[in-house]
Amino acid sequence: MRFNPPTKSTWGISALLIRAGIVCRIITIPVLSDFSFLMVTAGGVLMLLGTMFSKL
């Protein structure tokens, strides 16, 4: 399997999800703090899929 660099939008969205998840873990935000692990995981999976598929 050949890996490709993710598009700028995929990279931006995944980085935003990862950063938001880390911030929500450190700072308590009532609605989002419960989903901090899910946001970091979703950002990582999106980055992984962005490198595996060329047009994602």
Summarize the structure.
With 56 residues, the chain is mainly alpha-helical.
Structure write-up:
This protein is mainly alpha-helical and 56 residues long. It has one domain. It has helices spanning 8-26, 36-52. The model has no long low-confidence stretch (mean pLDDT 92).
SSE diagram, text form:
Elements: H1 8-26, H2 36-52
Helix pairs in contact: 1-2
Main features:
single chain, 56 residues, mainly alpha, elongated
Global Rg: 13 Å
Largest sheet: none
Number of strands: 0
Overall outline: elongated
Count the DSSP helices. Answer: 2
The assigned structural class equals mainly alpha
Low-confidence parts lasting 5 or more residues at pLDDT below 50? none
Total discrete domains? 1
Element pattern in H and E:
HH
Approximate helicity band: 55-70%
